Amino acid sequence: MRSSLFLLALLTASLAAPVHARKKAEPAPAAPPATTALETLTHPIDGTFGRVTSADKTGDPVLEAGGSLTIANIAGPGVIDRLHIAIEGSDTFWRDIVVRISWDGGTTPAVEAPIGDLFAVGPGARQTLQSVPMSVQAGGRSFTSLWKMPFASNATIVLDNEGVHDTRVLAWEVNYRSVPVAADPLHFHARYTQANPPEPDVPITVLRTSGQGHYVGMALSVQSTEPGNVGTGKIKFSVDGDAARGPGSQPLIRYFGALFGANKTTGPWVGTTLAEGNRVQARTSFYRFQVNDPVPFTSSMEVTVDHGPDNQRMDRMSAVTYWYQTGTASAFGKFAAARDRRWPSPSDEELALWKRADDVDEEIVDAYRRMDLDTARALLEELIKLEPKNAVATYNLACLYSLNDEQDKALHMLESAIELGFSELSFARHDPDLKALHDHERFKMLVGLSE
Questions:
Q1: The whole model's pTM is what?
Q2: pLDDT over 80 at 1, yes or no
């Protein structure tokens, strides 16, 4: 009974309250903004679907050597949701066919890159990729981008064939939505740059821009011109003119999540689409798409990449950086000519030798994990006969000699590994497999612990 009287008293008090003191009813809460692509499907989607496709053309399109073809010219405002290009022809096409995209009447392309590099599959190599914003299928011949690309008045997509062969197969499809966008939207950018060879002592500038926006990733390719590990050195960010802002400086190979060396793998945001090892002529291609951790800038952004410790390695290097910003960024370097973009490919004989060496290397790792050191040693000696300049194999053999207390052999192999380009001296100083050498003055000198 007391509870009923209490409720009645509350009701009477609320009815007697002055009108101006009553609390206005709250509106129903709005649905939270979508945070994933699948979640957006539970909300109304703005715009009208549109498509530009080669399927609407009569006959099979051909892009002649030295020719240019506009595959889309779309009036805005709108957003490109999907860009698909399929191509077949000369093996040089992956560096010869250049994709150029301009926004809102801009005279400088916001997107300018060879098709293979734009889609993160390496320096002219037919590779595949399965990531969230990009995919490459059909043996490296079918390219799809899902990057969102808004434009206010106009979007123009051009393919330029800077090679000496016509295409044999060419198809495309551009899916977009006619939808209102900001008067000055954040435009998608992707620019190619290369150093062949790089300038000694000077890092490679892979992005320099002014304006407001955010950096969203990079695809990096390296071709070794000397023995030793690829991806050494650092990547450095300067945000709004301040090197201490943003990610700052970090080891290059760690930026791509490959601390223990490059192995071929593709993931939704980071991976390695090509990994031929640390040999001379070997090629490696990394990518990282910073969709979940973009780097914002309000006035400027600069990114540089080292070519080895102290920028002394002369490896061929190229990069495509991806970012969004207002307006269209000015060019920050000369676009390399097609002949300079065609890096020499390893021969079939070299690739077969590397395949055998990689198979032996896997057997070595398996034997080492089983602590079957005799088998690991025999396999390493075989591997070094196959590849006398393999710095990592030479270092690993030094470790096995050390574990077997063959100290003179171990020191000799360690010195040979360093001469061949093994540069992870900070690791070698504390490697427990080299413990038998730690008190040797020669060891200390080799790893930089003494003069």
A1: 0.84
A2: no
